[in-house]
Design brief:
The model is unreliable at about 5-25 and about 25-30 (pLDDT under 50). By secondary structure, the chain is of the alpha+beta class. α6 runs parallel beside α8 (about 335-355). The strands form 4 sheets. Strands 3, 5, 6, 7, 10, 12 and 13 form a 7-stranded antiparallel beta sheet that branches. Strands 1, 2, 4, 8, 9 and 15 form a 6-stranded antiparallel beta sheet that branches. It folds into 2 domains: about 55-215; about 220-455, 3-Layer(aba) Sandwich (Rossmann fold). The protein has 12 helices and 20 strands.
Length: about 450
């Protein structure tokens, strides 16, 4: 998009973080204006109400392991959309499952914060698939619902409910969602607003997004998507030991939408810039090789096309990756700086071949990472080395290259933004979640503030 046009959007200030959906750039004219005259929940043709789709909310499927088996049970999940719109559709994923999945009575509603698992009474709309309320998703497949009229306001949280009428032994999920999925007693409870039939998923199976991949909204031509792709720091994880202890239900970050891409989305809204943000971070993810456990997903070089280049209306990718390539490896397994550079270069070239700009972020500080100080050589045995000298050397060499290279379309120096100037190599105390690796909510906000929005002009 021409820089002058983007500057005009910013100068006029079309929208703010709290603006209603009709105030987005280009909204309220043409086919979009006609939408407001259609009844809420009406099924419509998506392409008649916008020139393109953009993800208002999204996540990256990571695996299909350790998920709750379902039989005649309902599931309810919550999330915050980022981009406004009047017409929506839901993307569901069975990408990593080896068996088909049948779902029924998917209902989208507004979250009611007055009670656990509750949605606002009368706000729900039934989603259909080819006009049917039941959908079977083949193994490895992704499906889109029919489009409906459902006004979306940025950061006004929504709930999605579905019934699994048949035995579902395996669900594609996103690991570490910083959200709690709720599972019902037997029966169809998708239309129950109070949510009294639901309980939090068992602790070992919690903190996931199950099956849902994106909520897409119809948008006008000037709107495009910025994909933020990376590992747990992009995904918004908090302190590692708290997560390992299973403190999902009481953790202060739960359901707060405090990931750095959330804060970046708010900055775009406040600046009046026409960019939706798609979060494709996966905890434990690496650039070059599979995560240390299968739940951490395939590496960026394998998932990049699907999770970045094939995201609807993508114009820019902001990629920060690499801490786990050295931080979850034994000393013998740490990839060379040359290998990391080759991986970055491959991704940059693929982006440019697809007509997409790519911005690289430096790897944040991780000195003192708690698990990296296990005694008696246990860190070497388990391959957890984020805070150890070998990982620090590898991280610094990669960061030096990121700062000096000219292949990408820009650089964000997250390391410099988060580092404690009085304690080099460490996160600033106020930016530290407590494990010396993952930022706090203030740290994630600082990451978004560190991003020069002119990189997207």
């Amino acid at each position: 998009m021409p820089k002058q046009l983007l500057a005009a959007f910013a100068a006029i200030g079309f929208l703010s973080a709290c603006a209603p959906s009709s105030s987005a750039p280009g909204a309220g004219t043409g086919a979009e204006a006609e939408t407001v005259n259609l009844a809420r929940c009406s099924q419509v043709e998506f392409d008649d109400h916008g020139d393109k789709a953009v993800p208002s909310w999204s996540t990256a499927p990571s695996d299909a392991l350790i998920t709750p088996p379902l039989l005649n049970m309902s599931v309810r999940q919550f999330f915050a959309p980022h981009w406004p719109g009047e017409v929506v559709r839901m993307r569901l994923s069975n990408r990593y499952s080896s068996v088909p999945l049948t779902l029924q009575n998917l209902r989208l509603a507004e979250q009611d914060n007055s009670a656990t698992a509750a949605v606002v009474e009368g706000s729900d709309c039934l989603l259909t698939f080819g006009g049917e309320s039941t959908v079977t998703i083949g193994a490895g497949e992704t499906v889109l619902s029919d489009a409906i009229v459902f006004p979306v306001t940025p950061f006004k949280r929504l709930g999605i409910s579905f019934l699994s009428p048949e035995f579902a032994p395996q669900l594609t999920r996103h690991l570490a969602a910083v959200e709690t999925p709720y599972i019902s007693i037997p029966g169809d409870h998708t239309a129950d607003p109070a949510g009294t039939a639901y309980v939090p998923a068992p602790i070992a199976l919690s903190n996931n997004f199950l099956v849902i991949e994106a909520l897409e909204v119809a948008a006008t031509p000037e709107v495009s998507t910025v994909v933020a792709i990376g590992d747990s720091i992009t995904d918004g994880a908090s302190d590692l030991l708290g997560s390992l202890a299973g403190l999902y239900f009481s953790h202060p970050s739960l359901g707060k939408d405090e990931r750095y891409p959330n804060f970046l989305a708010k900055r775009f809204l406040e600046a009046g810039l026409p960019f939706a943000v798609s979060n494709k971070g996966i905890g434990g993810n690496r650039l070059l090789s599979d995560g240390i456990v299968p739940q951490y997903g395939p590496p960026i070089i394998e998932r990049y096309d699907y999770d970045a280049l094939e995201v609807p209306s993508v114009s820019h990718v902001l990629m920060m990756i690499g801490t786990n390539d050295s931080g979850t490896a034994t000393p013998q397994e740490i990839p060379s700086t040359e290998a990391m550079i080759a991986g970055y270069t491959d991704v940059i070239e693929r982006s440019h071949a697809a007509g997409v700009k790519i911005i690289l972020g430096t790897i944040p500080p991780a000195k003192g990472m708690i698990v990296g100080e296990l005694p008696a050589g246990l860190s070497d045995s388990f391959g957890i080395m984020h805070g150890m000298p070998q990982a620090e050397v590898a991280r610094n060499e990669v960061n030096d290259w990121i700062r000096s290279q000219t292949l990408s379309d820009g650089v964000v120096d997250f390391y410099a933004c988060l580092e404690d100037p009085n304690n080099p190599g460490y996160l600033l105390p106020e930016y530290n979640s407590g494990d010396n690796l993952h930022p706090s909510a203030a740290g994630y906000a600082a990451m978004a503030d560190c991003i020069d929005l002119e990189l997207f002009y």
